[in-house]
Amino acid sequence: MSNLIDFVSFYRGLGLMPLPLSRAKICTEKDWNKRSFTASDFKTASGVALRCGEKFKSIWVSGYLLVIDYDSNDQQILANFSNFYALPKSCLVKSGGEHDGWHLYFLTEFPLQGTIYGKFQGVSVELRGQNSYVVAPPSVLKTEYKFWANRHLEAIQILPAATLELLVRDF
Fold it and tell me: Which of 16, 22, 70, 80 has the maximal Cβ count within 10 Å?
């Protein structure tokens, strides 16, 4: 995939809802959480976001998209976070912007409602569910959002319900 429209088509093929973004990480269209967008909506977009809480389906797995937004480049704390909550190895996206952090993509049995904010070892962490979105590759803001370690969306894993409950309780 080489351009924004290719990624938009790829995301749609997985049942996800891509959203057009400005360079300021703001969806360029009103009612972003209620409608779908056509290729023409992306002509002037600087990036693409994915609407969280949407039903995702690949040939291997299906569920509702949950993204953990980890706002630090500290890979040791990220490893501690992953180990502490026994997170399955799933799709991981290196994010750009001021935090230079990570987006951890998972599927859940039921959609998480809204966004839950918390901290882990001093790092801001958000659980992104319905009525939220995350910037996705190949968006270019301050830096590019890139897939890391070849764990593309086809490799997304189910987040066990008990793990999600623990995260929600702790945050």
Answer: 70
Query: The whole model's pTM is what?
Result: 0.89
| 57-115 per-position pLDDT tens digit | 777 788 999 999 999 989 999 999 999 999 998 888 888 777 788 999 999 999 999 99
